[in-house]
Design goal:
The chain is α/β, with parallel strands linked by helices. The protein has 5 helices and 5 strands.
């Protein structure tokens, strides 16, 4: 009788471990000359402090909706700040007119599609969702 609860616990632990091992991939168009980005470059791109890739081409960052778990994980992992701080930052920046926030799209599938279609697009998706049509330039562990 004690074996059933033990199996249930082991299954829960393994599912949590699998979830914990998921990664977020930052992707660009396959033709983008950028092969990697530093953490600082990526933060600056997504926080509106930098508007171009290292080669000088203007970047078009894509974002997921504010209620997206992946968006929350992305910003928390990237900046080590709670998502509330990120949202407050963008509220201030938008109001001041000093920078434009990343373009929000509804789903990860739309991020992949836009990055495939737009040479200067940059976005983030689960690493497991990456296709050969895009290039990974940065990876974050969730």
């Amino acid at each position: 009788m004690k074996i059933l609860p033990m199996i249930a616990i082991l299954m829960m632990i393994s599912s949590f471990s699998a979830f914990a091992e998921q990664k977020i991939a930052v992707i660009v168009n396959i033709n983008n000359p950028t092969d990697t980005l530093s953490t600082k470059q990526l933060i600056d791109l997504y926080m509106g402090k930098l508007i171009a890739f290292p080669n000088g081409d203007r970047a078009a960052p894509l974002d997921l909706p504010q209620d997206s778990t992946l968006r929350t994980d992305f910003y928390q992992q990237l900046t080590n700040k709670p998502i509330g701080s990120i949202n407050a930052y963008w509220s201030r920046v938008k109001f001041s007119g000093h920078a434009q926030s990343p373009l929000s799209v509804d789903t990860s599938e739309q991020v992949l599609e836009r990055v495939k279609e737009i040479d200067n697009a940059i976005g983030y998706v689960n690493l497991n969702d990456v296709t050969d049509d895009v290039k990974v330039v940065y990876t974050l562990a969730q």
